[in-house]
Here is the input.
Amino acid sequence: MKSLAIVILTAAAAQAQTASTLKDAFRGVFRVGAAVNQAQFEERDPAGGRIIAAQFNTISPENVLKWQAIHPRPDVYNFEPADEYVAFGEKHQMFIIGHCLVWHSQTPRWVFEDADGKPLTRDVLLDRMHDHIKTVVGRYRGRIAGWDVVNEAVNEDGTMRQSPWYKIIGDDFLLKAFQFAHEADPQAELYYNDYNLENEAKRKGALALIRKLKSAGAPVTAIGLQDHDKLDTPPLRQEADTIEAFHALGVKVNITELDVDVLPRTARQNTADVSVTAAGGAGSNPYVEGLPDEMQQALAKRYADLFRVFLEHRDAITRVTFWGITDGDSWLNNFPTRGRTNYPLLFDRQGRAKPAFDAVIRTASQ
Ligand code: G3I
Here is the structure.
């Protein structure tokens, strides 16, 4: 028995040691994925497409399944880009994620208003939510394997965000969204996705929310920890505690939007709230000509530390997804300050693997 275990362990270590791709290094542990943009899945970015096909076994759509993109006007659905995204995922045999059904952001104003511009009643907004979810989830039934059903519903202090969804429907808008999604595709995994859940107050609020949803019977498969991280935050202990706290509720944990911002802070708060903007003062964009080696090493260490935490929690984690492929693709070049040169991912602007990539691969064999 013991020798069999040794043989199996040795085989797993050998697989990780020889693996030169992320999906192979973590095969059997968790899926590794990335958010893809339209140029990539329409094959207008062949270099990006090659990295995706070689490295990842799950993809998320960076923008094309958001409400404003797929359902811009009451009777208009723009399915073409999403169809292409799903076809690309199938071509490469990926575990395909849908992002996202119910969010306060990137949702047109008309969704919450009647023809005269007056706020909708609860029942009419619930009908609208139901139609949208039934149409979008139903179209990709059996093809999109997991959905971010509700995105970012909790405030930093743990209270519920006063979004139009919350204000018009009430706090059962989440339960309804999960029920509608389950109805539209009973096989699909369903997620609650948010950022900064490592922070105590927000985590407590989200834990209470998930507990409440579960006891009301909502079919929640997993929590998405976005992990828009910095070099020094969140601390590793907080990352581990957060994974453990959600897992203890009987749900899986996915890391859904991983990146590590290496630039000086320009906004007052640490947030991934896309509505935040900040002016860039002197010194706010220091690495236009390239990332100095010491920063490159700091980024590699940070990624290795994070992946060690993920590996220690392999029983909880089923997927780790990066929010982009190369540094040039990243939203962090424009957030919260526009036009900076950031280096948050594992591949550089030319698509070459960075030291952080090697550091991540090495964690799989340690
Ligand atoms: O497509 C239009 C284009 O037609 C127009 O010319 C251009 C002018 O600015 O804008 C383009 O749309 C942009 C879109 O990305 C596609 O590139 C929007 O302005 C821009 O706001 C949008 O940003 C996205 C943001 O979510 C808001 O939807 C980022 O790419 C995307 O990375 C980011 O992702 C979010 C997750 O969905 C949720 N969690 C946080 C994460 C990071 O903010």
Observations:
- The radius of gyration is 20 Å.
